[in-house]
Amino acid sequence: MHRLAAMPGGWDPSTPEGVILIEQAPAPIVLLTAADTDIQVLAQAVSLWPDIPA
Predict the structure, then answer these.
(1) Which residues contact 29 (CB under 8 A, 6 or more apart)?
(2) Measured between alpha carbons, how far is 23 from 18 in angstroms, rounded to an integer?
(3) Of 6, 20, 32, 38, which is the most exposed, with the fewest CB atoms less than 10 Å away?
(4) Contacts (Cβ under 8 Å, ≥6 apart) of 17
(5) Residues 40, 19: Cα–Cα separation, whole Å
(6) How far apart are alpha carbons 31 and 38 in whole angstroms?
(7) pTM here?
(8) Helix (H, G, I), strand (E, B) or coil at 40
(9) What is residue 27's DSSP assignment?
């Protein structure tokens, strides 16, 4: 996950410097959760998954 810091002065759409592209490979799994228990269960399940995508 990437978070971009807020810059003073805001975003100016008329300048190309205001656009930030983040290049990253797609994930084989996307998990959206706020529960610690979900993350713990997934961590245990991954250790049992023999052919997990890298």
Answers:
(1) 53
(2) 16
(3) 32
(4) none
(5) 36
(6) 9
(7) 0.39
(8) helix
(9) P
